[in-house]
Design a protein that fits this description.
Layout (H helix, E strand, L loop, with lengths): L5 E2 L6 H18 L2 H6 L2 E6 L7 E5 L9 E6 L5 H19 L3 E3 L5 E3 L2 E2 L9 H22 L9
Parallel strand pairs: 1-2, 2-4
Antiparallel strand pairs: 3-4, 5-6, 6-7
Helix pairs in contact: 1-3, 1-4, 3-4
């Protein structure tokens, strides 16, 4: 698995730290090609309070053409299943940024494949539709194949 991921946690849960590090590496391998993985420098993952949000992803070099460093924030109140699933969702956004499908203007406007989608409702934004469509299958494949979890069909 990819070993570039640095995990910095607010909480001291070492089992969760290992789970998220393994998941992050696997998601990178599933969503990015070897060249894209090679150009990445760091993906830092933090467990921290986000209000009502479950997760956030941001590139640490605003205004650059191709993002290489990312910060992913995950709500610490989620159970491990939802932490992994949220991480999968945010990793889809990493892929979108690396592929330059999702870009931001200097003024903070959000563009999907060149089209301004900033003012669309959350569930209608194409980058969110893709992340929502992939998060469950990515998370559950990782948890079942690599962690031996047995999931009920109605886990979502």
């Amino acid at each position: 698995m990819v070993d570039f991921v640095k995990i910095r946690l607010v909480t001291k849960k070492s089992e969760t730290s290992k789970l998220l590090a393994d998941a992050a590496s696997w998601f990178a391998e599933q969503l990015l090609n070897p060249f894209q993985i090679e150009i990445l420098r760091d993906i830092n993952i933090y467990l921290c309070s986000l209000g009502e949000d479950w997760g956030r992803c941001r590139a640490l070099q605003p205004g650059t053409e191709r993002a290489r460093d990312f910060e992913i924030l995950i709500a610490p109140t989620l159970d491990d299943y939802w932490k992994v699933r949220t991480l999968a969702h945010e990793f889809v956004h990493v892929k979108q940024r690396v592929n330059q499908e999702l870009t931001y203007s200097a003024g903070g406007r959000r563009f999907w494949k060149g089209k301004d989608v900033t003012d669309l409702p959350y569930l209608e934004q194409p980058h969110e539709k893709e992340a929502l469509a992939l998060e469950q299958s990515l998370a559950e494949e990782f948890l079942v194949k690599f962690k031996g979890w047995r999931l009920k069909k109605d886990a979502a």
